[in-house]
Amino acid sequence: MASDSKHPPLSSRPPGALVNGIANLGEVIILRVAAIGDWAIFSLSTFAWMVRRWPSRGTLLPNFYQIGVLSLPVVALTGTFIGMVLAEQSYAQFRFFHLETRLGGVINVSLLRELGPVLAATMLAGRVGSAMAAELGTMRVTEQIDALESMGANPIHYLVVPRFLGCLFLIPTLTVMADFMGMIGGAFYSIYRLGVDSHHYWSNSQQMVREFDLFAGVFKSLFFGAAIALVSCHRGFHCDPGAEGVGRAATSAFVHSFVLILVLDLLLGIILNAIYYYLWPEGASVI
Amino acid sequence: MAVRTMPKEDLKTDAEQIPLLEARDLYVQFGRQQVLRNINLAVPRGQTLAVIGESGCGKTVMMKTMIGLVKPSRGEVLFDGQRLDQLNEQELTRQRIRYGFVFQQAALFDSMTIAQNVAFPLQQHDHKSDAEIRKIVLQRLSEVGLPESVAAKKPAELSGGMRKRVGLARALVLNPELVLYDEPTTGLDPIMSDVINELILRTRQSNPVTSIVVTHDMNTARKVADRVVMLYPLARLGPDDSQVLFDGPPEELDDTPDPRVTQFIHGEAGERLMEMREMANGALD
Questions:
Q1: Cβ-based burial of A18 (10 A; exposed 0-12, middle 13-18, buried ≥19)
Q2: In the list A18, A120, A184, B84, which could disulfide-bond A175, CB 3.0-4.6 Å?
């Protein structure tokens, strides 16, 4: 019992590491929930401004050019290489089962339903999302957003809505470009490098690829585009002061967007598959 | 039943008696850090008020709160007798056209030319033709001593003093009733600082504007202000102390018995370095 006398009763002990740990955890959870709530309000405000007043042509066109036109080359290039990589990686497996001629179908369905939209969204998040967060973050730090507000221009209407519309309207185009270039790259590599018969490659593709696959990819891309714009603009608007704050906003815009793209991809994939099997119970789709 | 009608003269006097801007029992807190406590301030029409105080005492936060850019944690702000927190988005926008804000670092839009920056408020709120807007922009630039050749330049191509003058031209382009200057002379050489002071005075002479100048430059405060308010950082005050150390005409600044005001206006460090070292050592322990 001698050892017991060394310790004061529990009620009189100062809060220990455990209590501090729980308190810190609680604080982190509260901050995260508040941040999600803040993002939700920011998103609703963007939708409200979009309905209330359409942005002027002068603010829309530069954003459309920046988001769509300037992203096309990089999306096309990465799409081409993804198609070729898919062919290279799948060929050995398919050859083992003597199914090389099915390669076209698998590559093209994968591209249309998954890789095209996810790749286009990832490139958009990396190229445009980070840039948007950095630009808006710099505007926040240098009081340009305050200046807009002080001149009676709503910053969400003026800065966020055009970027949101640019991402929403142009990501389907980028997705179709990634799909198309991936299909070209995959076919070129399979036929000219791996020696797959061109007629069977395309006829199998024609059999396996459905219009719904293209629709599913493009439909998903709309959600990805909206998520990239809302996450990146929100990060920029809530940027910490200084160069470090701007850098952190740009990085977190990409990381948060990418995670959200993957989560949305899974959820939308489940929903679209359920719709597909409901509409076509025979379920002829490969994926 | 006879209804008493107020004579026109009385009405005018009543309207003029309402302060253009008023803060009542204003508190501002960011997270756990309180910046402003129990600020009560009324700015009558036509007055030029200088808000002085050391860095971090809440001068800029007070000014931004008084025009609705920062939401107060408690208290209310009245602009022309109307509570800002009770205005909807459209009404707030309408009120914001009535004031111009000159930011510390000018806050010019990087992606626009100087002409586009100055034209921005006109394009947002005034339905004028491009030619009319161009004419007004060049006139405003000329008033702040900038030639037509700067109109096509980007803000990054101008010096700090030129950017500040563009910021002033932009703030004045809609002929505001209230002009707010945030550290207008910070970072400028003495001559350019005095040029800005002269511009503030001329703006007041040419238009019947009310002005609030946040500064820690005593030359500016003494030269342009009718009234000076000095704020003190809350971290250096007791729980019951007033955050406003001085409120009066600039001529009375030298007669104030408060040593904290005297220390500030004469720019004396006093025991401050020792205090800061003790605080730093205390934090390390």
A1: exposed
A2: A120
Question: What ipTM was assigned to the predicted interfaces of this complex?
Answer: 0.82
From B64, B94, B121, residue closest to A151, measured CB to CB: B121
C-alpha A152/C-alpha B190 separation (Å) is 33
Contacts of A132 in chain B (CB under 8 A): none
Q: Which amino acid is at B113?
A: T
Q: Give me the residues of B, 34-73, that contact A with CB < 8 A.
A: 64, 67, 69
Instruction: Return the C-alpha torsion angle A249, A250, A256, A258, nearest 10.
Output: 180
- Strand order of the β-sheet with B21-30 is B33-43, B21-30, B74-79, B82-83
Smallest CA–CA distance, residue A239 to chain B, in Å, is 15
Q: Residue B155 carries which side chain, given as an amino acid letter? A: P
* B107 to A138: CB separation less than 8 angstroms, yes or no: no
Please write the tens of the pLDDT for every residue from B10-57: 444 555 678 889 999 999 998 888 999 999 999 999 999 999 998 889
pLDDT tens for each residue of B192-247: 888 889 888 888 888 889 999 999 889 999 999 999 999 999 988 888 889 999 99
CB of A27 within 8 Å of any CB in chain B? no
pLDDT in the model for residue B3: 39
B160 close contact with A: CB closer than 8 A: no
Residue B18 C-alpha, separation from nearest chain A C-alpha, in angstroms: 23
pLDDT digits (tens, 9 = 90+) for A25-67: 998 999 899 999 999 999 999 999 999 989 989 899 999 999 9
Which pLDDT belongs to residue A286? 43
Residue B49 · residue B22 · CB < 8 Å = no
Cα–Cα distance measured from residue B18 to residue B44, given in angstroms and rounded to the nearest whole number = 7
Exposure string of B198-209, with b = 16+ CB inside 10 Å and e = fewer, is ebbeebbeeeeb
* Nearest Cα residue to B212 out of B69, B46, B53: B46
CB contact under 8 A, B69 and A149: yes
CB A140 within 8 A of CB A246: no
**Could you give the residue ranges of the DSSP H alpha helices within A142-241?**
144-150, 155, 161-188, 198-208, 211-237
Q: Which of A138, A139, A150 sits opposite B67 (nearest CB)?
A: A150
* Cα–Cα distance for residue pair B115/B136, rounded to 1 Å: 10
Name the residue among B69, B89, B125 with its Cβ closest to that of A150. Answer: B69
B94 contact residues in A (CB cutoff 8 A): 152
Distance CA B28, CA B65 (A): 8
Indicate if the pLDDT at residue B4 is higher than 60.
Answer: no
Q: Which of B159, B160, B162, B203 is nearest to B181 (CA)?
A: B203
| Interatomic CA distance for residues B230 and B222, integer angstroms | 13
Which residue in chain A is spatially nearest to B96 when comparing CA positions? A152
